[in-house]
Design goal:
It is a single chain. The N and C termini lie close together (about 5 Å). The chain has 21 helices and 2 strands. Mean pLDDT is about 80; it is low at about 1-75. By secondary structure, the chain is mostly helical. It is a multi-pass membrane protein.
Length: about 550
Amino acid sequence: MDAEKHPPSEPPFESGSTTPLQHVSGRTPRSATSDDSIGSDATETEGGIPQKLPSLKSPKNIQYNTDLEKGPGGSQSENLQAAVQHVDSNLVDWDGPSDPENPMNWGLAKKWYITMMMSAMTFCITFSSSVFSQATAVTAKVYGVSTEVTTLATSFVVLGFALGPLVFGPLSELYGRPRPLFVGFIISAIFQIPVAVAQNIETILICRFFIGMFGSAAMAIVGGVLVDLWDPVSRGIAGATFASSTFIGPIAGPIVGGFIVHSHLGWRWTAWITLILKAVIGCICVLTIPETFGPLLLQRRAARLRKETGNPALRTALDDARPTMQDIFSKYFSRPLKMLVLEPILLLITLYLAITYGILYLFFFAYPISFQEVRGWKHPGVAALPFIGLFIGILAGCMFVVYFTRTRFARKMREAGSVVPEERLPPMIAAAFILPAGLFWFSWTSSPTISWVPQVISGIPTGFGIIVIFLQGLNYLTDIYMMFTNSAFAANTLVRSGFGAAFPLFAAQMFHKLGVRWAGSLLGFLTVAMIPVPMLFYVYGNKIRAMSRFSPKL
């Protein structure tokens, strides 16, 4: 690919990449817009640096990817020549595309086990974000504060989600996947203890923030693990599994929390139960999940070969191109803000995803108002059961995205060899209409004179719309920004988590003052206003991308 306006040189590899180099590879080259749901191989390249060099054991068996990025001040042929000159017999790489030590070549059962356990860790973290929402009223009475203050206990966790990836993303590049992932997960679990024994609201709020910040290691790193393990097509299914855990966790939280708070256990057991869940899943993962980060595995191979051969010159590409703190600061701090200001696609898609994410967390307080207060369902656990409608909708949305990706999208890939990013948008356009329909449905069936059944069913289109918009929005950003995907995701996560933290703070006031009908309708009108966003990019996305400083021109 030949970028017309190429930004400054990038760090040598991104979080979530399987190897630090891309253009010279032992694997079959892939299109820049191939089927990815979580991450993209394209994110593994920055600044025209090759991804993989030939194996130490097979220096002559080189396969070149001719779809080269034009680096700063260099042509495609110059970049290729530079990559070839960089090859030497002391550089350790995978032993061809079928190297059994390459995580991409691990057995299917092993890869699915890792994927499911990582998704379980993510479920634990997102579950902990919402389970306390059912204790809001109780803790307000216990500590003599308003419910607005105790609502912060939910908002602070989501706020931690925004800041955590800025720490754990760089750490996963420097130290591999498991170490920062497990450290963050364990510390997050430990902070459940002071919440469970807290004697004041300040302790709860501070510790809940750290639960979110350290727990976000899972959401920041698991996407990279999926890139390490799966080919682009299979990654679509694995990515949908991971995404479903991200949304099912917070939906399960209020249901479980409602029954705990109303039982003899009391509200403190929302923290104890979460701690037990995290301890069980965490221990299993620590004992069974291996390193999947390709560059680090190659470093271990190089160390073993140096010992076996007595050749101290053996090294890996990561040794030659370790990212500096300046590279990491640019990727995770300065560039995301710059892209958010300069990129209309990133700005509008991020705004859309942030609104849908905020609505999801707002519902953790709107549903109890509608079913407990308006309909008179006194038991908090029973009043939380309508969240099952959202749960069904999210599962249906994930299956729909997988089906679309493996049929229409995959067919276009086979026929044309590549697909424009806008081919990700048809499901998002459909979901853009389905989401407000679900919100209006929820709002105008909320009267206690109407059966509860249609209002509960309204959660299905609402959940479907939220997850499809979320998945396809991220896929669209991945296909557009390619080697800048991590920076785009950092900006998206920061804004989206901010909305997720803010929306619950005005949920109670809005639904009490406007009533369920008009408060829900206001959310519906807000999502109606966002319908043109995916339609605009589906029609004019190609022209808008042509003016982008960060979207490579193919």
